[in-house]
From TrEMBL:
This is Uncharacterized protein.
Length: 302
């Protein structure tokens, strides 16, 4: 069981005994919160408040050797580059087991985050006068961003190299999924879909979603064929055979590129530029405008 490391927070920590306690304590100011949500789990949330109607929600990917502590936040530098309110959230499932490196923000039997996080974010919207969310994350955090953005009409998911079906992996190479299913939900990989949504391709099938997606994918990443291809095909579109930048549907833009090796994130300069253009400048969601943005982003990443 992981222990809370307060050095991971930017602001003094406000401890909350339950969610209602959090709703009472959150104010229009930058704050860090650690909320007890089960006997062993805490939901750690950090708000950098800038008084804006838009807010960027930052969801982290897997723990790495450089980032092993709990809470596992991402985007500290990004939050300083964005002139909107930012909300960083750590996955509470890490408190269940020190060996957990990834949980996709999908929760556990004791605290189903797929169910509760939209409620929590709606409460934050009311207190901070937020009208629209932009979700951002890569890999597991990208998977979570796609899921939670689907719950907020008009929101945007900005993702890179995300998983789109968390059980669609060889069992011998991805034991993390079996461990997660067993310890978080007391079930098997094959029955995990009975507890939570595991397949975002089915969730988005048909392309009738009310949110927008900006999806960045490395062509050389194994997730390109395993995750991006079935997600694109769920919209009734053939997966591009080469590099591609353009609209897959009215609300889904794909940038299929090779600006990093394999599953690595885009170059930091490129990523921050993209976020600034979308979040700060509110670039038009059109093929022409987004193509122009990514042409510049590719140049910055060289």
């Amino acid at each position: 069981m992981s222990k809370l490391d307060i050095s991971q927070f930017q602001y003094p920590v406000v401890y909350c005994n339950h969610l209602k306690d959090f709703y009472r304590k959150i104010k229009n100011k930058s704050s860090s919160f650690s909320i007890k949500v089960s006997p062993v789990q805490r939901l750690d949330v950090e708000v950098t408040y800038k008084g804006t109607s838009d807010a960027l929600v930052l969801l982290a990917g897997a723990k790495t050797k450089k980032r092993m502590k709990t809470p596992n936040f991402s985007g500290k530098l990004i939050s300083k580059s964005i002139d909107k309110t930012t909300i960083r959230i750590s996955d509470p499932v890490f408190y269940l087991n020190d060996d957990f490196k990834l949980g996709w923000y999908f929760g556990s039997e004791e605290f189903n985050l797929q169910k509760f996080l939209p409620v929590i974010l709606n409460n934050i919207k009311g207190v901070l006068n937020i009208s629209n969310y932009i979700f951002f994350g890569g890999s597991g955090g990208g998977c979570a961003s796609l899921y939670f953005s689907s719950k907020f009409e008009g929101s945007t998911a900005i993702v890179f190299n995300p998983q789109t079906n968390i059980v669609f992996y060889p069992a011998d190479g991805f034991k993390v999924i079996d461990k997660y299913a067993s310890e978080a939900f007391g079930t098997t990989r094959g029955d995990l879909h009975k507890k939570i949504v595991v397949d975002l391709c089915k969730l988005y099938a048909g392309g009738n979603q009310k949110n927008k997606i900006i999806y960045m994918q490395n062509k050389t990443d194994s997730h390109s064929i395993r995750d991006c291809k079935p997600f694109v095909e769920a919209f009734g579109v053939e997966y591009p055979k080469t590099f591609f930048s353009g609209l897959i549907s009215e609300n889904f833009y794909l940038h299929l590129t090779d600006w990093s090796k394999g599953h690595q994130p885009p170059p930091r300069e490129s990523l921050i530029y993209v976020l600034k253009k979308i979040v700060n400048d509110k670039v038009e969601f059109s093929e022409e405008s987004l193509n122009s943005m990514f042409e510049r982003a590719e140049f910055l990443g060289v």
